[in-house]
Amino acid sequence: MVAxxxxxxxxxxxxxxxxxxxxxxxxxxxxxxxxxxxHQPIGPADLAPLFPMELIKQEVSTERYIDIPEEVxxxxxxxxxxxxxxxxxLEKLLDTPAKIYFxxxxxxxxxxxxxxxxxxxxxxxMKEGVKHITTETGAGQWGxxxxxxxxxxxxxxxxxxxxxxxxxxxxxxxxMETYGAKVIASPSxxxxxxxxxxxxxxxxxxxxxxxxxxAVEIAAQRDDTRYSLGSxxxxxxxxxxxxxxxxxLQLEKVGDxxxxxxxxxxxxxxxxxxxxxxIKDKFAGKNIRxxxxxxAACPSLTKGVYTYDFxxxxxxxxxxxMHTLGHDFVxxxxxxxxxxxHGMAPLVSHLMxxxxxxxxxxxxxxxxxxxxxxxxxxxILPGPEPTHAIKAAIDEAIRCREEGVSKTILFNLSGHGHFxxxxxxxxxxxxxxxxxxxxxxxxxxxxxxxxxx
Length: 453
Fold this sequence. Notes:
The protein is an alpha/beta fold. It has 19 helices and 15 strands. Tetramer of two alpha and two beta chains.
């Protein structure tokens, strides 16, 4: 009997030294972002109050590879290359002929994939003399990663945390504060956009759209401050492609290549990280399926519309073409806080329109069941967000068993669930409620979309 390696690792010297930019290989170019006032395509000057120029250049670049600065590579080595695992115990439990691999990003100091972009973002801000960065966070993974990165480069950090997550996940907040960040529950009284929301909805649970508005407002008011986003934007997704590039190299070591690639999707960053380097091969003729998995309570890909919309509730951001549920959509307080965003990354949305990816949604009880199964077989407690990818991987492996075919399945385990034990406790007690975003609710939220001439 042939022994299969459980863990496939790369040496530090094998770590990729450039990010992959999928815009170089798109068969149809990405629709441009529009100015929120004029509805005309925006230029670098429009983004300069919010982002350092190097990130603006990366946002619009069509170069296939962009070098990772040496200073960023050195910090990456604190956790990169991350391990690729063969989920042999899960395969045995499912009695499947499928081979299941997962890339584990929970080994980063902040506990998730988010550090792959927070480090370069903080670096480029530092290089331009920025003293203070504002941001938002849903479940807290992004806020944690940026807090850590800002501390490494001597930058102040203010995080607007969605209020329901601020209440559900106090230890995420404590970790951000340990890294030196100021954390504010959103919506708050510290901004005009926050006060406006609280006037009409004093008990608002918050949303990522609201938190973005508050963070952007503060950044626009101070010359020494810039704004940072943990998902959605092109440069953010590009920074994450180090995940998929490493996974390719690791699978080559065992002579394998995926038939099916899976990632959970909220804004699109970890999904892009694992899939984009393989979608490059799909464009070149490889026969692979790429599956994006989202919550039934926040189904932007499966129930949203593909159109121009604001990235925030306060309508301060540029208009981008994406799958959206409407910028004033307020999601229910499901426990996969990192997936509670009204829109999907323009690049991911564009790939959906091109037919390069497929999408599905799950209720939270089904995903937590998958997370518990994974923990009991593989020993790793996954965050609520990647349990969506685990659920899809299990379903695909069962399909392989039923059809009697062997497929290689790869998914991204984007972070651990150590700060989400309160959510697991509720699941184990039977207290989690499945929430489906109805067609009527979708139509109501979409009725407020901006009209583009």
